[in-house]
């Protein structure tokens, strides 16, 4: 069995005779994870209170306002809940083998693997994003799931990976992925 090598503090890989396995973790600083959990708990408590108020005797207009508010609350509960689960237990597993490339976004082992033929991939590219833009700020925020830093084209479709990696790690991982791609093409 080969040893694990690290690219930055979020990416590790293992080279084997029959393939290459790369793991990109979603972990961040402990205080950010704690803040996210506290935020989810507070948001859940607010929703429980809104639900409690819905069943109290209120005028029809108030009940309608509570129902509308609960719809918005539920949408954001799902969004932030997924972000919390991703930050606590999420990772991307990238696999190369002869003629095949796979990506699996997983939370505690649950997730769907997507397979691609290496012959249909030309190369991996870094996503260019202006450093001081609002979109860049939002993509780098620890409370969102976006922020893919690397992409490739497969049969005319762009596929992104490497969520919220820093610039140095993105550059190193892109170079490593391109080397592995040329190694495992049939």
How would you characterize the overall build of this protein?
The chain has 186 residues and is α+β, with helices and mostly antiparallel strands. The chain has 2 domains: 5-28 and 89-184, PH-domain like (Roll); 31-87. The chain has helices at residues 30-54, 60-89, 134-139, 167-184, and strands at residues 5-7, 11-16, 19-25, 90-97, 100-107, 113-117, 121-126, 148-154, 157-163. The strands form 2 sheets. A 6-stranded antiparallel sheet has the order 1-2-3-4-5-6. The protein has a 3-stranded antiparallel sheet with strand order 7-8-9, with helices on one face.
Mean pLDDT: 90
Give the tally of structural domains.
2
Order of helices and strands: EEEHHEEEEHEEH
Largest sheet: 6 strands, antiparallel
CATH topology heading of the largest domain? PH-domain like
Neighbour order of strands in the largest sheet: 1-2-3-4-5-6
- What share of residues are in beta strands? 25-35%
Give the helix tally.
4
Instruction: Return residue spans where pLDDT drops below 50 for at least 5 consecutive residues.
Output: none
Per CATH, which architecture of the largest domain? Roll
What is the straight-line distance between the termini? Answer: 24 Å
Silhouette: elongated
């Amino acid at each position: 069995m080969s040893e694990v090598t690290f690219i930055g503090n979020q990416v590790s890989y293992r080279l084997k005779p029959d393939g290459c396995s790369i793991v990109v973790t979603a972990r961040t600083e402990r205080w950010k994870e704690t803040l996210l959990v506290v935020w989810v708990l507070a948001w859940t408590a607010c929703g429980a209170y809104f639900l409690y108020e819905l069943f109290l005797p209120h005028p029809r207009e108030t009940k309608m306002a509570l129902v509308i508010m609960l719809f918005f609350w539920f949408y954001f509960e799902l969004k932030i809940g997924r972000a919390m689960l991703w930050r606590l237990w999420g990772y991307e597993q990238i696999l190369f083998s002869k003629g095949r490339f796979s990506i699996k976004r997983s939370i505690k082992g649950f997730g769907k693997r997507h397979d691609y033929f290496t012959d249909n991939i030309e190369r991996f590219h870094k996503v260019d994003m202006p450093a001081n833009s609002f979109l860049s700020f939002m993509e780098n925020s620890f409370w969102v799931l976006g922020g893919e830093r690397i992409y490739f084209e497969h049969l005319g479709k762009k596929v992104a990976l490497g969520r919220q990696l820093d610039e140095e790690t993105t550059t190193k991982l892109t170079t490593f992925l391109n080397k592995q791609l040329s190694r495992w093409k049939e």
